[in-house]
Design goal:
alpha/beta; Rossmann fold; 2 domains; ten-stranded mixed β-sheet; Universal_stress_UspA; Universal stress protein; Rossmann-like_a/b/a_fold
Length: 302
């Protein structure tokens, strides 16, 4: 891999499945997942790595490094992309490689406007999803123009059965539901639509006068089950060959969904739902699931 082989085109089109790669083991997992996703969708695979050139000040000429900082960064990029090329040597579909100067999350968010989906590992070398799950926690899925798939480092492509999507009656959740149906249809996997009914224990501590009884909870659960039947019917109408079901588990939404990521082939979420803070880029449930997921999670932009 030489500098001439690295794409620096600033007006990309048709990037297909876009994978952020930084040479780490989680990034290698994301690369494997992204390659499989590209084959499932019969589309191109684009591998992107980024680099930064620090602004350095030297007291004198003698202290200046023999190799220019930018050239050193460029060599590091070439090495990473050569590793990616080796890992993809058996990939049958079209692959392109890009070296981009800039912040990883920002670069991927910008390129996502030309991609079907972005795939990243759950941790990296300080870039990519290390940013996503850190203090600037919602950087990529919140700003990406296409769905983002976060792959945990221990994930195995052969694990998982159904595609799970969380809904809460919001428009964002409904968009996620149909996106999940498309993913399940592509994978020929069953779709499970889940609406988690939170328990009232915490509310009752602060508002004991609510008197939330089992009868009230049961009635609400039946209402949600009835609503889900309509959603299942809507999905079935659009995807008649897709096996679709709905369920209304009770508990903390984040904990319930994290538990489901263990056995799901893919868990699909919207960036935010019915939370009180509508201006928030990432809802608390989506953020919590991303932090703790044990399987791949796809976040659908609103």
């Amino acid at each position: 891999m030489t500098a001439e082989n690295l794409s620096t085109d600033r007006t990309p089109t048709g990037l297909g499945v876009l994978v952020g790669y930084d040479g780490s083991e989680p990034a290698a997992q994301a690369l494997e997942y992204g390659a499989a996703e590209a084959m499932r969708r019969n589309t191109a695979l684009t591998v992107v790595t980024t680099y930064m050139v620090p602004a350095m000040l030297y007291p004198n000429i003698a202290s200046m490094p023999k190799i220019d900082e930018q050239e050193a960064a460029r060599r590091g990029v070439e090495k990473r992309l050569a590793e990616a090329t080796g890992a993809l040597r058996d990939h049958a579909g079209p692959v392109s490689y890009r070296a981009e100067l800039g912040d990883a999350a920002g670069v991927l968010a910008g390129l996502s406007a030309h991609a079907l989906t972005v795939v990243v590992g759950a941790r990296g070398r300080g870039g990519f999803v290390g940013r996503l799950l850190g203090s600037v926690s919602t950087a990529l899925p919140s700003h990406a123009h296409c769905p983002t798939i976060v792959v945990p480092s221990h994930h195995s492509e052969s694990t998982g059965t159904s595609v799970v999507v969380a809904v809460d009656g919001s428009q964002a959740a409904r968009l996620a539901m149909f996106a999940a149906a498309e993913m399940a249809n592509i994978r020929q996997a069953p779709l499970e639509i889940v609406s988690v009914l939170p328990t009232g224990d915490e509310w009752l501590y602060w508002y004991p006068e609510l008197e939330l009884s089992a009868e009230v909870s049961g009635r609400r659960q039946k209402q949600l089950e009835s609503s889900l039947k309509n959603e299942v019917a809507a999905v079935t109408q659009q995807f008649p060959d897709l096996k679709t079901s709905g369920s209304v588990p009770t508990g903390d939404p984040t904990e319930v969904l994290v538990g489901m990521t263990k056995s799901a082939q893919l868990t699909v979420l919207g960036t935010r739902g019915r939370g009180a803070v509508k201006s928030a880029l990432m809802g608390s449930v989506s953020r919590g699931v991303l932090h703790q997921a044990e399987g791949p999670v796809m976040v659908i932009p609103n």
